[in-house]
Each structure stands twice: as C-alpha cells, then as structure tokens.
Design goal:
This protein is an alpha/beta fold. The chain is built from eight helices and 14 strands. α7 crosses α8.
Length: 373
C-alpha cells in the first residue's frame, strides 16, 4: 500500500546538500549586506570563517586555510596549477571527478611524467601503487560512486611528494589525517549544507615550501595566483580574498559552523553521518532488489551513498520521478556519468528520521515501476 508518512525534509541532494536542522535564512545577520569585503567588518567575518574552520576541524596551527572562488573545483584546480610539475605525479581515480583531475593534468597542464591508477565505479584502486617520491592526486570520497578512502595509514610520514586531496564530500563527515595531507580542498555546500560558489584550500607547511621554491612553466591567471615573488600571499589566508566573495554565503557558512559547535563538533557530525548510513545498511540487508554500489563496507561512503537496483534504467528513472512527484525524495538519481541507480546524501545535515521515513516509499515506488515487468 502507498505509505502516508513523509519525511519532514525530502532534500537528499548530494550538492547543494540539505540545510542543517532548524535552519532559517531569516536568522542570518543583515549588517554585512551592502558592505565591502575589504571593510574591517567584512575582513573580520571572513577571518572568522577561517579561524573557526581551523578550530573545529583540528587543523594544525602551522597549516594555512583560505577562502577561494569557484567552489571545490576552483580550489583544487588552483592547487594543481600552482603545485604540480615539480615531481612526477601519481593519480588515483575511481569516479568522474577523480577522472576529471586526471584529464586536466594530462590534457591541460600536459604533464608527461604521470601514472594513473583507476578503478571502476564501486571499487577502490590499490593505493599501495603510489610511489611516495611522487606527488599524488586523489579524492578522499568519490561523490559520484560512494567509495571513500578508509584512512590515511597508506600515506608515509616521510614521503617526498605532496599529497593533493579533493575532500569536498568528506571534510566534516570523516576523520581527516591532517599530518598526511598537504593540500585539501572542499566546498561549503557539501557536508555543512552551506551555499555554493566558494571553496576552501588547506595547505601544509610542505605545500607552502613548494609554492616558494617552485614556479610553474605555464602562466597563471589572476584567479589562481596565491604566491608572488617566491612568497605565499598570506593575506588570502587571513580574511582577504582573490576576488569579491558572497558575504551572505559566508554568513551562511558561519551559521553552519556555529551549529557544528553546538552539537558537539566534528565527532557529532561523523556519528550523524554514520547513523544515516546504518539506516540503509539495515534496509539493504533485508531488501533483495537494492544493492550498495560500494560492495566493500570498509570503503563505503557515509555521505554520498550510491545504489544499484534490480531494474532497468528506465524503471529507475521512473522511480526517481515518482518519488519527486510525491514530494518524498528530491534529487536522488545517480550522477549522470555513473551506472544507473540511486544516490542519497547521508551527511550530517540530513535527519535519520527522514531517511527512515523514505524507506517504505522506496519499496512502494519500486513495486509500482516494476509491476508490469
């Protein structure tokens, strides 16, 4: 029978992700509107976003954190264009965004000494193939495949190369071994459900040393410049920005950070994400027609949780449309380049009760779209 109880929030998009519980746009401060980001007020608010990020994530004091344009994509592109080329590069890709970084390295930067290690959707390549003398480029969590790096144990402390990690759907939801990571990027609109268009760049002292000692052979557009005359442009990591940021988006991010603090910090966020994944683990265990795309639970994401169904691609599309029409689950179709299936965001801003409420609807919708087969 058709269920009657619906989730309070049907927003399960993997980006932009659901707003935090209790969120209200009306609660954001208005005094920043119409003010310059270069004013003392503007700089103070941007600097607060940086200092609160470092505090809540436990980022080492000697690391640099900056706010950049163009979301996680812009932040990671900037990192690659500034830092790669000094050493050979090993790339690891197991979904579309990781593959995109490989394309940029090989076809845009045109680096020659590159080794790529790939795996199919749902799998993780053997990370032990990395040569620690080389720089490495990888995603921590494959947003479009639901496969994550389990931990940082495979990264040696005495590595010679830099580790460049796109962690946009991992930061604030998974343990990040900062001492093993030299470059980390993420965006506000993922785990914290913030607004889009801005990315965060985190640099270790080793990455800063590379910026001082190495100058790429290619020209850098203004939007990518974070070093000048062999020195890091430290103002970018103190509240100044390369171009004009959205101050209301920054307030939105500060609101999310305050929520994180109020519920117990990052450990509480990780627990919420794990609890959400557990809802689906129980459901998949007792439901024969749905399967995790990530078969190995050790590398299964607790944010972007991906599924395959015992259904045709057209039936899957019909299921997604049906649940959307019913106002039960929005934006749950698999990524366009991924295998046919579903993708539910299970990050900390999603309530466990909403995921539990959607399960009977999934069963109903699956029966509806497959009953004629």
């Amino acid at each position: 029978m058709k269920p009657t109880i619906k989730p309070n929030s049907p927003n399960f998009s993997s980006g932009p992700c659901a707003k935090r519980p209790g969120y209200s746009l009306a609660n954001l401060p208005k005094d920043i509107l119409g003010r310059s980001h270069r004013s003392s007020l503007g700089k103070a608010r941007l600097a607060k976003a940086i200092t609160e990020t470092k505090r809540l994530l436990g980022i080492p004091a000697d690391y640099h954190v900056g706010i950049l344009p163009a979301s996680d994509t812009g932040a990671f592109e900037l990192a690659m264009w500034n830092l790669l080329g000094a050493r050979p590069v090993d790339t690891f890709a197991w979904e579309s965004f990781g593959e995109g970084w490989v394309t940029d390295i090989v076809k845009q930067l045109k680096l020659k000494d590159v080794r790529n290690f790939s795996a199919a959707y749902g799998e993780l390549p053997d990370l032990g193939q990395w040569d620690p003398k080389n720089d490495i480029v990888f995603t921590w969590n494959g947003t479009t495949s639901g496969v994550k790096v389990p931990n940082g144990d495979w990264i040696p402390a005495n590595r010679e190369g830099l580790t460049l990690c796109d962690a946009t759907s991992a930061v604030f939801a998974m343990e990040m071994p900062w001492d093993k990571l030299d470059v980390v990027t993420y965006s506000w609109q993922k785990v914290l459900g913030g607004e889009g268009a801005h990315g965060m760049l985190i640099l270790s002292p080793r990455a800063v040393a590379r910026l001082k000692d190495y100058k790429p052979s290619w020209p850098l557009p203004k939007i990518f410049r974070i070093a000048k005359g062999g020195e890091l442009m430290t103002e970018i990591f103190e509240g100044a920005t390369i171009n004009t940021p959205s101050m209301i988006a920054n307030e939105d991010y500060l609101d999310a950070l305050a929520w994180v603090d109020s519920i117990g910090g990052v450990p509480a966020l990780i627990k919420r994400s794990n609890d959400n994944l557990a809802v689906f683990e129980r459901f998949v265990a007792k439901t024969p027609w749905i399967h995790f795309l990530a078969k190995d639970e050790v590398s299964r994401s607790n944010t972007s949780v991906c599924f395959s169904l015992d259904a045709t691609p057209d039936q899957v599309k019909a299921l997604v449309k049906l649940l959307d029409k019913e106002g039960v689950a929005y934006d749950i179709g698999a990524y366009k380049d991924a295998p046919s299936g579903l993708r539910f965001w299970c990050g900390a801003t999603v309530e466990t009760a909403d995921l539990e409420a959607v399960l009977p609807w999934l069963e109903w919708a699956y029966a509806e779209v497959t009953k004629a087969a």
